[in-house]
Structures are given as C-alpha cells and as structure tokens.
Amino acid sequence: MAYAEQNVTEDTIAIAKPKPKVCGDVRVTLFELRRGLDVHALAACEIILGSVTYAPMHSLTNVNTTTTTPIRFPYLREVYGYILLGYSSLRSFSSMFPRLSIIHGRELYHSYSLIIMDNFLLDELGLTSLINIRRGNIIIARNAHLCYAKSLRWNDIMETKQTQVITRQNRDNCAFCPTCPSACWSPTQCQQRCSSHCKGNCLSETVCCPIECVGGCYYGNITKPSNLICNACRNMRIYATGRCVQQCPQNMLKTGGSLCVTRTECTSFFMGSGFILEEVSECVISCPSGFSRESGSRCIRCTSSPA
Known about the structure:
6-stranded parallel sheet; membrane; phosphoprotein; single chain; mainly beta; EC 2.7.10.1; 24 nucleotide stem-loop, u2 snrnp hairpin iv. U2 a', Chain A
C-alpha cells in the first residue's frame, strides 16, 4: 500500500465489516469428505466462532489418483478457537486462507491455538495475512518439506509473549528468505512489519490501524484512500453495523464472546436456530446444561420437580 508516506494513526470511529457471514466449528476430515461435505458453504465464512480442523488424511491415499474439491476460505479473517492443519497433501495454505488475520485462541487444542503437523508435501506456510494470535502456543512439526517456519518473527504475531513456539522436524536445509530482508512465509512472500508504535496492529509499516482494531485492518475502497476497516474488533463488534465498542449496549445480546446482536437477529443467527439466554443476556447456539427451551427461542433455567 502506498497511501501514506509517514506513520498515521486513525482516530475515527473504528468499524469492522457489517453483517459478516458467521460459521461455527469447521471440521474437514476424511470422514466428513466421504459423507459429502458442502465445501461451497464453507467458502462463505468470514468469522468462525469455533475452531478449524483440516485433516483430510491424504497421506493414507494415493495422492496421484485422489481428487477432491479444493477447500478454501477466501473471506475468512478471524477464528475464535484454534486452527489444526494436518495430514494434507497441500504445498501451501496461501490459497486456503488468503485473508486470515487473527486467531483468538479462546478454545485451545492441548494448549495450542495453531497446529501444523504431518503435511507431507507442504513446503511453505503461506499465511501471509496472519498478524495476531491472541492466546495459545504454536507447534509446527513433522512437515518434511517445509521451509521458512523458523525465519518468522513469531513474537510479533503472539499477543501473549509467554507463549511457546515449537518448530521441529521440518526441512532445515532450505534457503533463508531469498527475496526478503529477514522473515518470510514463502520465497516471495515477506512477513509484514509494523512500526513500533503501531504495537503490531497495522495496515503497513507506515499506517497504524485504529486502536480498537485487532489483527490489522484494510481500506474499504481499494482504488483510493478511505476509512480503515478492522479485520476484527479488540473488544466487541455490533453485528449489524460493524462498529467496535467496549461492551454491548444494554438492549443487545452478546454472542461468541465479541459480537453484539439484537433479539431478532439471535433467533436466526446460528443457521436459523439461535437461542436467547436471558440470565446473562447472551445469544447461544443451544441451551446449556440446566436450561430448557421455552417459547421457541428462549432458554429458561430448569427447576426441580416437587416431591
């Protein structure tokens, strides 16, 4: 981007994309693929409120004769849980996750928020848009052809500096970032750097994102300078408008830990089956233990039957 020639911080109201397509947990394994997984529905996801497991087990089949529809998430920017990528025949994840910018790590897999293991043809990570991992450790291991994983400045990506990054049993004898000054995702894709006062939250080295953004930002209009749009909000996001706020307004419900929805939106939010948990003003995908569904879309605490 060449829209700014000096460090700039936007002080306007921070917003993210209004009404993003929200998905729950995503599992792509040999079992789901054999059952006829709708990969086209996955392609629309912009936010995944759960975790992503991509483990198609191609290593157990003949790669030359196995044909599957490519799994891609072209619009996905944030994942609330963890991402596990394993047992695949991909050479790069660049086309699968071209816009993935933030992993929140609210749900972890054995303390890890990013797991990349046993991808026997993988030679580059390609996660060029990944700017922020808010919680959890990283393990990248047993990818026999993988280069450049150790070159990356993982401390720039990890929000919690006490986390652990494990890279082992990958390819160690490959060239060190041939076209980049230091860190790279692939031979031609350098890791983005932020100015120090952007605190890891930037559009480019010269443009900081609004403070309420997390995981970077982008211009709403790519043909000319315009307002910066957050990839994700640091605290809460009003679903309909995309506005970043400290907390949900009193007349709205919280869902997924960082989205604010109306009661009307809740009932159709999770693939048409959201439920209102009145006690804590939340919108949930199903009534939790100890609650029962009442009036179609409300969760009411269960009471003991009289003796």
